[in-house]
Amino acid sequence: MKRMILTSGLVLALTSPAWAGTSSSIVDQGSGLFNAANVDQTGSTADNASVIAQSGDYSEANVIQFDRDQSSSILQSSSDDYAEVNQGDATLALTDGSGGNTSYVEQAGSGGHSAYVTQIGIGSDSSVVQNGDAQIVEVEQSGNGNSFVVTQAGGANYAGVWQLGDLNSVTYVQDGADNWLENYQSGNSNT
Predict the structure, then answer these.
(1) C-alpha 103: how far from chain center
(2) Which candidate among 38, 44, 112, 179 keeps its CA 20 to 30 Å from the CA of 16?
(3) Span of 38-47, 65-74, 166-175 with lowest mean pLDDT
């Protein structure tokens, strides 16, 4: 199996079994000032990967990945951005019950963005792209095989997703000012 995590200018490719049982992290803070990046990857047969690239000032990125086969990418190119990705669960990791999640966060524009992603379960995907003003995205997916995509541009947008169950899918595109959106799906196979 080959998995690639792509960010602007950075590529991390993992090929099993050459990397079997290892975790890797690439952190590039560019020319920015006072940025912080924290990565914690735990698992018995981890195969976790994380890429963080920050080029603005005063930005912070935190990644916590339990279990195995987790991958995350965070790209923050303006100042005062915050991104947090939590994938897996320590208790579920004991039985390999929370692995195979993928997360991608890209934030650009005038800064002050926030993104929070939590994925508990197996094989969920999330993608967040924010451009422009003071936007916030919160995501929690606690089932298996869930999918989430949000794209926000301009204005003071907010999005939220809470998916409880399996095989749920959400796609948002918010363009403009003063948007507000929340979504909650309980059960299976909701879109």
Answers:
(1) 3
(2) 38
(3) 38-47
**How far is 86 from 25, CA to CA, in rounded Å?**
15
Tens digit of each residue's pLDDT (9 = 90 or more) over 53-101: 999 899 999 999 999 899 999 999 989 999 999 999 988 888 888 899 9
- Residue 84 structure tokens: 């947090």
For residue 61, which of 84, 40, 77 has the smallest C-alpha distance?
84
What is the DSSP pairing of strand 2-7 with strand 60-66? unpaired
- Amino acid at the residue 57: D
Q: Any idea what DSSP says for residue 134?
A: S
| Helix spans in the chain (H) | 90-93
- What is the b/e burial string over 18-51, where b = at least 16 CB atoms within 10 angstroms of the residue's CB? ebeeebbbbbebeebeebebebebbbeebbbbbb
pTM, entire model: 0.84
Task: Round to whole Å and give the CA distance between 114 and 116.
Answer: 7
Q: Which two tokens stand for residue 110?
A: 């005038």
Structure tokens at 76: 């923050």
